[in-house]
Amino acid sequence: MKRAQTAAFLLVALLAAAEAEARREKGGDKACDTGWECSGSRFCCNGTITDYFKAHHFEELFPRRNDSIAHATGFWSYQAFIAAAAQFEPRGFGTTGGKDTGIKEVAAFLGHVGARTSCGKIYPDPLAWGLCYNREMSPDQSYYCDDSNELYRCVEGVRYYGRGAIPVYCHPELLEQNATIAFEAAIWRWMTPVKRRQPSAHDVFVGNWKPTKRDTVSKRYPGFGATMNIMYGDGHHICGRGFTDEMNVIISHYIYYLDLMGVNHESGRSLDCADQVVFNPSTKSSGS
Ligand SMILES: *[C@@H]1O[C@H](CO)[C@@H](O)[C@H](O)[C@H]1NC(C)=O
Ligand SMILES: *[C@@H]1O[C@H](CO)[C@@H](O)[C@H](O)[C@H]1NC(C)=O
Ligand SMILES: *[C@@H]1O[C@H](CO)[C@@H](O)[C@H](O)[C@H]1NC(C)=O
């Protein structure tokens, strides 16, 4: 049941966070209206994801998802991704900075998703097998409601946040039944800091996050490498362990998707997290 509870919490938290953000935006900078996909936010002024990420890109990124050996045939779709993304574009998902930054962010997010849902390790074209599963979409579900999670530790009150849609979201099996909700949960994870004194993957990727001296000493720089640090923490042993296969396969998905979308990746050490110290390690020995 732990999984069930955590999924419900994250979806409720998602809605609460989106509402709070919407409220903030209204009082702030000039807002733009670009229709259903992105309206009422300064981020929308920079265009929408459908401007640069089309259905054919989705097909090119995930060509084997309906294969006979795939586990979620017919489940994932471009429409589901765009509908989910539309909930977060007003908060800057894929709409921060110019078009190139948007493309990079979508490729980075989908790179994580593709690597996590791939079943292609043993097949030819290992990078073509993203979205083969519809489980374990949100990396590290244990984050949402466990003792080491200071920010979202089983927030009882949030669960009963009054809104008509909530009872629907309280059925976590929807994550495996509804691709839009599954993408929403994963984008929420990308957009939201889940631990105290830790930025979101979005913020480290688009450059909103400014590393402190301790971050620099810990080799944490803005970029794709730090998003792995945030998405996987210290539970998955991805970061700080050198150039392991587990880390390389995530980076490979990101770079492959960028190539397909026609954008060059950053160079240098911001791409990997081979010698990054993890944010907020659960053992007190390193970091703080
Ligand atoms: C996968 O299946 C969906 C739903 O049936 C369909 O819309 C899509 O075009 C298919 N894509 C591929 C690459 O087979
Ligand atoms: C919009 O794009 C411009 C040009 O790339 C950039 O300078 C600006 O910061 C972006 N605005 C937002 C809200 O991301
Ligand atoms: C999936 O969830 C979305 C968002 O809540 C909803 O609009 C859509 O109708 C659902 N799709 C199905 C097939 O239930």
From TrEMBL:
Residues 1-22 form the signal peptide. It holds the Pfam family Glyco_hydro_19. GO terms for biological process: cell wall macromolecule catabolic process; chitin catabolic process; polysaccharide catabolic process. GO terms for molecular function: endochitinase activity. InterPro entries: Glyco_hydro_19 (IPR016283), Glyco_hydro_19_cat (IPR000726), Lysozyme-like_dom_sf (IPR023346). Its EC number is 3.2.1.14. It catalyses: Random endo-hydrolysis of N-acetyl-beta-D-glucosaminide (1->4)-beta-linkages in chitin and chitodextrins. It is an enzyme of class 3 (hydrolase). CDD domains: chitinase_GH19 (cd00325). The keyword Transferase does not apply. Residues 56-167, 171-273 form the Glycoside hydrolase family 19 catalytic domain. This is chitinase. Disulfide bonds join 145-154, 239-273. Gene3D superfamilies: 1.10.530.10, Endochitinase, domain 2 (3.30.20.10). Keywords: Carbohydrate metabolism, Disulfide bond, Glycosidase, Hydrolase, Polysaccharide degradation, Signal.
